[in-house]
Amino acid sequence: MSDMLSIGASGVRAYQTALATVGENIANVNATGYTRRAVTLNEVAGGSGSTNGYGAGNGVTLTGVNRSTDVYSSTALRASTSDLTRTTKGAEWLDRIQGALTGNALTSRVTAFFASAQSLAAEPDSTALRTGMLSAAGSTAMAFTATGKAFDQVDADIDTAGNQAAQTLTSLAGSLTKVNEGLSRSQPGSTAAAQLMDQRDNILSQMSELVDIDAKMDPIGRATVSIGGSSGPAFVQGAMTGTVSYARDDNGKVSFSVTLRSTTTRITPNGGTLAGLTDGAERVGAIRQELNAVAGDFVKAVNDNQKGGKDQTGAPGVALFAVDPDGKPTDITVDTAFTSGSQIAAGTGGGSRDASNLGKLEANRISVGYEASLTTLVTGNATAYKQKNTIADAQAAIRDGAATALSTSTGVNLDSEAVDLIRFQQAYAASSRVIQIARETMQTILDIR
Fold first, then answer.
1. For the chain, what is the domain count?
2. What's the mean pLDDT in 386-406?
3. Are residues 369 and 319 in the same domain?
4. What is the DSSP letter of 77?
5. Care to name a GO molecular-function term for this sequence (predicted)?
6. Phi and psi dihedrals of 319, rounded to 5?
7. What pLDDT is attached to residue 49?
8. Distance of CA 127 to the CA centre of its chain
């Protein structure tokens, strides 16, 4: 009877834990990052040397609370998340660039300047038209300067976002090493180990939003992580973690590097926020270079044209625009020596109706195409932004598919849990009944006189 009692008791203990595990699954059906648990039950074999060769074993034992895993789906979800984040972050910076290019109406201000010059060419002796052209020149200079400042702000925001992403990635690595240490101390197959693995996967998911990673797990679940893909530098190795840093060189190029064990290695991010930042910085640099070229050509052409003509009093023309020698080519102002519309060199000395010099300015406008160059920058960036969004839509579908696949294989299914709940409840009740029968049988034996 003692064997029967111990067998029943082992069943009660095992199925009590099994019911608690199913209850935990049901309670966390909507919990983010939770992975389904399942118990593993094994028979407790009978002892050797038994006088009854046909006797029963010693009941059942719970050998572990196993966590559902799908390495392929987890890897696919992290990879698709990195790809999507790179595209969406890149699109955000393209949108910022578009705002910088169009927010100060630079193209229309340049057009207005040349239009005022054309109006003056039709009536070069008009004081009002000369004043209007000088005013248009001031508006154009301010538009160039404001556009340059807008790009300065975009660069500053990229630097802030880059430093923040580096700090967040370093912090996540520190959290992952703590999880690795916890897994080293936890009993494999325990609930504590399963909870730590959930935390580990959540951290890896957050890392994949920042940069493409390659994660490998050892037999007890500790993660080793490389960033920048499988060929990238090691970032987390057991209890060792690296530090990510952000930098911008003198040419405006941004870069990320990781330092581990006193060795610093440059990262080449192919996904995540870091790659999106790198793409955005490269785009800003390229457009900034083209904008500077347009600004430089525009100022030179107008100033050269002025110097090649005569003003309203017949004096040689002077430079209309000035560029800050310590600033950027877009830091343009109307020259302090240019104080009156009468200084505009409309002609070349052919009298008060001479507007030949303004005709040369218009010819230069047509041949160089300043407005066309600015419009090309705007439309080119807008096209790139639209393409990014189209790609993001496709990548979002891929990411959602990977998330669904992972949820299907490792998530909680209430129908399956309901079946397990009934099954384990019946087993628990039956084990309790075994104990009751054993006690009744023992009492019957004791009652024999």
1. 2
2. 95
3. yes
4. H
5. structural molecule activity
6. -60, 135
7. 47
8. 56
R_g of the chain, CA atoms, integer Å: 37
Q: How distant is the alpha carbon of residue 241 from its chain centre?
A: 21
Q: Would you give the distance in Å from CA 438 to the centre of its chain?
A: 63
Query: What is the CA 275 to chain-centroid distance, rounded?
Result: 8
Q: For Cα atoms 255, 258, 263, give the angle at the middle one, nearest 5 degrees.
A: 120
Question: Both 168 and 61 in a single domain?
Answer: no
Mean pLDDT of the chain: 91
User: Could you tell me the residue range of the domain that residue 90 belongs to?
Assistant: 72-185+270-410
- Contact yes or no for 106/144 (Cβ under 8 A): yes
Does the CA dihedral 161-162-164-169 come out positive or negative? positive
In residues, how long is the chain?
A: 449
Q: Are strands 243-248 and 240-241 parallel, antiparallel or unpaired?
A: unpaired
CA dihedral (216, 76, 276, 165) in degrees, to 10, reads -40
The closest of 329, 400, 390 to 94, measured between CA atoms, is: 390
CB atoms within 10 A of CB 70: 16
Rounded distance between C-alpha atoms, residue 91 and residue 209, angstroms: 15
Same domain, 105 and 134: yes
What percentage of the chain reaches a pLDDT higher than 90?
A: 72
Residues 6+ apart with CB under 8 A from 252: 155, 281, 284, 285, 288
Q: Encode pLDDT of 125-136 as tens digits.
A: 999 999 999 999
Cβ burial of 388 (10 Å; 0-12, 13-18, 19+) is: buried
Q: Where are the beta strands (DSSP E) in 184-270?
A: 213-217, 223-227, 234-237, 240-241, 243-248, 254-260, 263-267
pTM summary value: 0.86
Q: Evaluate whether residue 202 is within a structural domain.
A: no
Share of the chain above pLDDT 70, in %: 96
Tell me the CA end-to-end span of the chain in Å, nearest whole number.
19
pLDDT of the residue at 440: 81
Q: Whose CA is closest to 86, among 316, 396, 342, 306?
A: 396
